[in-house]
Amino acid sequence: MAEEKYVRPTWDEYFMEVARTIAKRATCDRGRSGCVIARDNQILVTGYVGSPANLPHCDEAGHLLKKVIHDDGTVSQHCVRTVHAEQNAICQAAKRGISIDGGTVYCRMTPCRTCAMLLINSGIKRVVCEKHYHDENDSLEMFKQSGIKIEHLEDDVQKYENM
Which residue among 36, 38, 95, 117 sits deepest, i.e. has the most Cβ atoms within 10 Å of its Cβ? Predict the structure, then answer.
């Protein structure tokens, strides 16, 4: 029997797998998410979903849910206790003096509207997502207008409990 030849992961597969591992540190079970920002095939910074420093985490204190009414009239609930993975990665870059200009972001789903604006202003050139986000239209349009390339590895929409 011939042995199957080992196939190295692509850079996108590699960084996405790192983002999945980073997500294991997340402290909100509704959206355990991780983020990697890389440039020139090197990791610059990472981030995961969690409360601001020294504040209680969802895993300890429970969720802080707020209802959101969308343009189409649907209502969903969002946990607002935590900082998103992309936001935490940007904060880590700022704290450590690391430029992410020209970088690529690897994340669980299409960044929300706020994260998209922060990524655009940070100079990110490409976003690679594992899945789609249920409320992604504003983000996709902003990325398009700003010339940022966005790719999804899967066509599925990320689902979570208590939506």
Answer: 36
pLDDT for 163: 47
* Statement: residue 43 has pLDDT above 50: yes
State the pairing for strand pair 34-39/42-48: antiparallel
CB atoms within 10 A of CB 92: 17
Helix (H, G, I), strand (E, B) or coil at 119: helix
Neighbours of 90 (CB within 10 A): 24
Rounded to 5 degrees, φ, ψ at 69 are: -100, 120
Collapsing DSSP to helix, strand or coil, 147 comes out as coil
Is residue 58 classed exposed, middle or buried when 0-12, 13-18 and 19+ CB atoms within 10 A define those classes?
Answer: buried
Cα end-to-end span (Å), the chain: 50
How confident is the model at residue 95, as a pLDDT?
Answer: 97
Which region, left, alpha or beta, applies to residue 149 given φ > 0 means left and ψ of -120 to 50 means alpha? Answer: beta
Do 75 and 69 meet the contact criterion of CB atoms below 8 Å apart?
yes
| Cα separation, 94 vs 160, whole angstroms | 30
State how far the Cα of 126 lies from the Cα of 151, in Å rounded to an integer: 8
